Amino acid sequence: MSLDTEFERVSLPLANAFTISRGTQETADNVIVKITDEGGMTGIGGAAPSAHYGETADTVEAVLPDLLDVVEEVGDPHALTTIEERMRHTVARNPAARCAVSIALHDLAAKRTGLPLYRMWGLDPDETPTSSFTIGLDTTEKIREKTADAVDAGYSTLKVKLGTDRDREIIGAIREEAPEATLRVDANEAWTPRETVDNSRWLAEHGVEFIEQPVPAEDPEGLKFAYERSELPIAADESCVTLADIPEIADRCDIANLKLMKCGGLLEAKRMVHAARAEGLEVMLGCMIESNASIAAGVHLGPLLDYADLDGSLLLESDPYDGVDLTDGEMRLAELGLPGTGVRTE
After folding, report:
1. How far is Cα 300 from Cα 161, in angstroms, rounded to an integer?
2. Can you give the pLDDT at residue 40?
3. Per-residue model confidence as pLDDT tens digits over 18-42
4. Which CATH number fits domain 119-345: 3.40.50.10490, 3.40.640.10, 3.50.50.60, 3.20.20.120?
């Protein structure tokens, strides 16, 4: 068996500038990987690198030739474990680059079996959580508009970016526009442990479900302090990057927030889910701002999750790829009707 590989970089404008406590993003540079078998069947995957984790589109493009050499040397898209292990030994870091290849391989392997990926994994498509839709930082007036638009579009769960001196004002405005919505907040490491505990009290009064990564990942004891005293559950994101982090955060949070672009691939993500369960943690899958070339694969992990935040492609002005229907946040795997991840060119 032989496999042909290729990749291309795409710059994707966002529908609106996206701001969190660390800065503002107006475009997302993704790198698309395609792997084609000798019969002409193609698997598609995407990398959405994050500079916060030391990765850029440039670094992805730099290491992909070596990673794709591994794929071509093995030559079997069903040899997923072998290829992912060899890729890890070939390129130790650059998880988004490895992830793009992992997704493309899984897409191709499932297509070759004629099954959607979730069925190849033996998962129940009806056991999926609702994905949240993110409201980024902005003026209070603009946040009101974004919230009203999200409610009108049918999103019942909103993830709110915080970490400013206007946090109370922001939550008050959103709650006025979305009185029935489930709210989650993400401070992106912007609070101190004590601020987290204090903020958890008034956030609980507004019916917030949980707080994501309130303190810096470099302060594990601060995360533990917040976890032990917060009136709301704590989710670890920047503190939860790879499989090795799961036992480290087990006594410091309630929820492990995984991202494909952090951990390096679908097999590793599944290992992290099971490790988190073994530690008594709930599991969420998040994303970067990504095309459906990668988001579609994450949706297939839905039946293994308690929470999902897979709105990355919904924040784009347009996406060159279609995927699983996420209209109003519902993860409609059962309606997919396509083999593989469901990703396809628009």
Report:
1. 26
2. 97
3. 999 888 999 999 999 999 999 999 9
4. 3.20.20.120
Q: For residue 19, count other CB atoms closer than 10 A to its CB.
A: 15
Mean of the per-residue pLDDT values of the chain: 97
Q: Same topology for domains 3-114 and 119-345, yes or no?
A: no
Domain 3-114 has CATH 3.30.390.10: yes
Residue spans of the domains in the chain: they are 3-114, 119-345
pLDDT at 345: 87
DSSP 144: H
> Which residue pairs from 74-80 have beta carbons closer than 8 angstroms and sit at least 24 positions apart in sequence?
75/1, 75/2, 75/3, 76/1, 76/3, 77/3, 77/35, 77/37, 77/43, 77/105, 77/108, 77/109, 77/112, 78/109, 78/112, 80/105, 80/106, 80/109, 80/267
**Percent of the chain at pLDDT above 90?**
96
The one-letter code for the residue type at 225 is: F
Q: How far apart are CA 54 and CA 17, in angstroms?
A: 22
CA–CA separation, 24 and 136 (whole Å): 9
Beta bridge partners, 286, equal 259
H/E stretch holding 284 reads strand 282-286
Does the pLDDT value for residue 346 go beyond 70? no
Q: What percent of the chain lies above the pLDDT cut of 70?
A: 100
pLDDT of residue 1: 80
